[in-house]
């Protein structure tokens, strides 16, 4: 077993992923939460007041109003990275069988709420969403709260199998290119990182 301290600094803005409207969160997102006992805690953490639009996404916030990421968002990033890197036959991720189960059971991120240290006030990112449907092309606007470049997050990753350390580095290297959070294809959420043994 090995614990690594990870410090990531976002080179591009990071978009919030929680619905600002608590009713939307409770009826859809919260019902699919990976940790049902924390549903009320997560519902209470979303929202930034009456000034946001109903369809906007934001960061959950502490009682003091500080934004954060949940640990499962980082684990989700690891799964996304491993799934894509499995297509690169020369990498270690290609050899990892049942990677989602392995990450769920052998890779642990803490703390539960990972504080985001913002260099300045968050902004907003509005962008078009396009979809090809049976009725033709559809376009809508999406709006998200955005933590600016320079935002820092620090967390620990505990690996129950030391052999996963090389894979963790592979996944973090992938995040430098692809990012974490919404609208990664545009470069949002790209980061640099530093590791230290915990």
Q: So what's the CATH class? A: Alpha Beta
Count of domain modules? 1
Count of alpha/pi helices: 5
Provide the succession of SSEs: EEEHHEEHHEEEEEHE
Query: What percent of residues are in strands?
Result: 25-35%
Model description:
- This protein has 198 residues and is an alpha+beta fold.
- It has one domain (2-197): 2-Layer Sandwich (Alpha-Beta Plaits).
- It contains five helices and eleven strands, in the order βββααββααβββββαβ.
- The strands form three sheets. Strands 1, 5, 6, 7, 10 and 11 form a six-stranded antiparallel β-sheet that branches. It has a three-stranded antiparallel β-sheet with strand order 2-9-8, with no helix packed on it. A two-stranded antiparallel sheet has the order 3-4.
- The chain starts with a strand and ends with a strand.
- 29% of the residues are buried.
- The model is unreliable at 46-53 (pLDDT under 50).
Entry summary:
This protein has 198 residues and is an alpha+beta fold. It contains five helices and eleven strands, in the order E-E-E-H-H-E-E-H-H-E-E-E-E-E-H-E.
Tags for this model:
26% helix; 11 strands; Alpha-Beta Plaits; globular; alpha+beta; six-stranded antiparallel sheet; 5 helices; 198 residues
Give the arrangement of secondary structure elements.
Blueprint: E1 2-10, E2 14-15, E3 18-19, H1 22-29, H2 39-45, E4 57-58, E5 68-70, H3 71-85, H4 99-106, E6 107-110, E7 113-117, E8 123-133, E9 136-147, E10 152-159, H5 165-178, E11 191-197
Helix pairs in contact: 3-4, 3-5
